[in-house]
Amino acid sequence: MPTAVIADDEDLQRTELRRLLALAWPELAIVAACEDGDEALAAIADLRPDVAFLDIRMPGMSGLDVAKASAGSCRVVFTTAYDSHAIEAFDLGAVDYLVKPVAGARLEQAVTRLRAQLATGTNAAELVKALEQLDRRLRPAAQAETIRWISSTVGNVIKMFPIEEVLFFESDTRYTRVVSATDEGLLRMPIKELAAGLDPDRFWQIRRGTLVCARAIARVRRDELGNFTVELRDHSAQLKVGQTYAWRFRNEVLMR
């Protein structure tokens, strides 16, 4: 029985896609329905589905990030609200797309294609190459309106942090800590909401509650258990990397 993971930050979209898939592909088992990219990547790693239906724009990791991080371990179908010009970027044999709201007839075409691909086997190298091309072509269109300033209010004092000076964000149960080389403050904005307004190429999510400025990273160390720790250029903080996000440093950074 083929299996699939669905990822979309809108509950109605997840429910509707599940309903349409039940009609178009009755034997397909939906093993996880995720509300963000972090959950989707973890589900793909744990459940090893045959197919992942990924929304392009999600809080935290985007659908593109999840597809690349899963390293071609499953077939990928993106769901997108982009216009026809951006959709031209999907004209690659190894990936498919569905425009939201998803139409039943278009989903049936995607299912037919997926069945044929699964029958002949997944070429992981081909899929990874296609995802890299897609990322280069879609990344400018995928970026949200980015945050320029961060303000933190403490009593009667408002601290202003230009985004260029922020080293990292770290959240707890109630607040998000914003840290620069010379100061820090607290925000009442959840880190998931904050991440949606940040440039994903500038701020990397390295843990569910941690975003770090890529340029601020001095080195990344790996211990004997394979756990990664980020060290910064202008701050003494040592930031733990969650296993879900360790892919970002494998094969890219020379560890000790």
Automatic annotation (TrEMBL):
Q: Does the keyword Phosphoprotein apply?
A: yes
Gene3D superfamilies in the record: 3.40.50.2300, LytTr DNA-binding domain
Question: Modified residue 4-aspartylphosphate is at which positions?
Answer: D55
The record ties this protein, via SMART domains, to: LytTR, REC
- Domain Response regulatory as annotated: residue spans: 3-115
Q: Which domain of life is it from?
A: Bacteria
Q: What positions does the domain HTH LytTR-type occupy?
A: 150-237
Which PANTHER family does the record match to this protein?
Answer: REGULATOR OF RPOS, RESPONSE REGULATOR RECEIVER
Write down what this protein is called. Answer: LytR/AlgR family response regulator transcription factor
